Amino acid sequence: MKTVFNINKFLVIATSILYLTLYLGLYAQILLGAVQLLSALGILFLWKQYNNKQQKHIILYWILTLCYGLGWLIVKDLNGLFLVVLLIIIMPMSLAYYFTWILNNLKNTQL
To answer: Which has fewest Cβ within 10 Å: 1, 11, 12, 44?
Structure first.
């Protein structure tokens, strides 16, 4: 779990820094999202190793991620800069930071 956390931490920091150029940050966010989804799927295979509180955080992450993904089916038109920034930058990066926090907690409780 420590390796997964370190890879994720590196990608989150790199994506945050690359957002200074905006376009590179958006591309880095795609890689970050793919790595985080694969990591989250891997965590599901280790489900029984985690306590109830950790499992609730993992479930909440999946609910938020699925709602965000399904929300793109509802959005017809992105009018306004605020909506674009919210849906394309702020929400996915918030999910990324939350998942990084979850991984940190999982890493700290591993034997």
So the answer is: 44
pLDDT, averaged across the chain: 91
Question: What is the three-state SS of 82-93?
Answer: HHHHHHHHHHHH
Structure token pair of residue 102: 């979850």
Please give the Cα distance from 44 to 22 (Å, whole number).
33
Mean pLDDT in residue range 57-82: 88
Match 């590179």 to its residue by tokens: 24
pLDDT over 90 at 81, yes or no: no
- Please, how many CA atoms are within 13 Å of residue 77, restricted to the half-sphere of its CB? 2
Stretch (H or E) spanning 72:
helix 52-74
For position 110, what pLDDT does the model report?
61
Distance between CA 75 and CA 70 in Å, rounded? 9
